[in-house]
Design goal:
four-stranded antiparallel β-sheet, 282 residues, ATP hydrolysis activity, six-stranded mixed β-sheet, hydrolase, disordered N terminus, binds adenosine-5'-triphosphate, 24% strand, EC 7.4.2.1, MetN_ABC_transporter-like, ATP-binding, binds magnesium ion, 9 helices
Length: 282
């Protein structure tokens, strides 16, 4: 069975990811001499960002362990997309530090390009190249950034497109696919770069309801396979079943961090209680 075959999304047992490493364990010396946890893959410390007068990210400290799935939720405008965009340096930060796998994100240059390639990104709006076929979309980054030869890139692209259930669509152009299929191509394209972590920014928000599950199913499968994922989503079923941790943001701050069970059953802050009452009762 390929990932896209299941028509009905049945989240697996919620306890299934408890074996995942949580951050903060097994402290070791990092390559730059500082002490860090062996399993930490993405570390943001003291990150601040402004858009003019707007303090959009305020003293963000966030550590994501290898293999962890972190769901980021919060009201519109709270800074969720900006947070994702700073992690792969689509946005600069004003102060603080972001490191990927022990290496601080540099401001620019080759090293930045290399580190950025380790961070996959899947957007709400797919962002596929309209004038390239599905297959070409998934081959391109492998050839240009990872320097693979064409045959190897094509083989990998076909394998990944099969894996997300769109293997028969290789020669089509994005506009000839449904939204759910396009988003699965976008996930295959991110996977093709062999990233250490994939950031998903509301990957199902632009989809018709009947296509949401086929995309969530692919994401659920990636989570089960141990991919490190940061997922901004309003899909609370996914958060409950796939996340190791929920990060709740409001007004540019991380207000609460908890396991999904703790967060949904017993939110601590008034902001989170208010937010949950709005999204869960509508
Ligand atoms: N390039 C930009 N220039 C100026 N302001 C921006 C820019 N990008 C985002 N903002 C502002 O920063 C704030 C946070 O935006 P962001 O997109 O990160 O929020 P979000 O939590 O992802 O919201 P949503 O749930 O609506 O996607 C908003 O007030 C937004 O208007
Ligand atoms: Mg957003």
């Amino acid at each position: 069975m390929t990932l896209g075959d299941r028509r009905h999304y049945c989240p697996p047992n919620r306890g299934g990811r408890s074996e995942k490493p949580m951050s903060g364990l097994a402290k070791t010396k990092g390559p730059e001499g500082g002490v860090r946890a062996a399993g930490d893959l993405v570390v943001l410390s003291g990150v601040n960002k402004h858009f003019g007068a707007l303090h959009v990210l305020q003293d963000i400290d966030l550590t994501i362990a290898r293999g962890e799935v972190v769901v980021v939720i919060g009201p519109s405008g709270s800074g969720k997309s900006t947070l994702c965009r700073t992690i792969n340096r689509l946005e600069t930060i004003d102060s603080g530090e972001i490191s990927i796998d022990g290496k601080p994100l540099p401001q620019e240059g080759k090293e930045l390009a290399r580190l950025r390639a380790d961070v996959g990104m899947v957007f709400q709006s797919f962002n596929l190249f309209a004038h390239k076929t599905v297959l070409e979309n998934v081959m391109l980054g492998q050839i240009k950034v990872r320097r693979k030869d064409k045959a190897a890139a094509e083989q990998q692209a076909r394998k990944l497109l099969d894996r997300v259930g769109v293997g028969t669509q290789c020669d089509k152009y994005p506009a000839q696919l449904s939204g759910g299929q396009q988003q699965r191509v976008a996930i295959a394209r991110a996977l093709a770069m062999d990233p250490k972590v994939i950031l998903f920014d509301e990957p199902t928000s632009a989809l018709d309801p009947e296509m949401i599950n086929e995309v969530l199913e692919v994401m659920q499968q990636l989570a089960r396979e141990g991919m490190t994922m940061v997922v901004v989503t309003h899909e609370m079923g996914f958060a409950r079943s796939a996340a190791n941790r929920v990060v709740f943001m409001a007004d540019g701050r991380i207000v609460e961090e908890a396991t999904p069970e703790e967060f949904f059953n017993n939110p601590r802050s008034d902001r989170a209680k208010d937010f949950l009452s709005k999204i869960l009762h509508h």
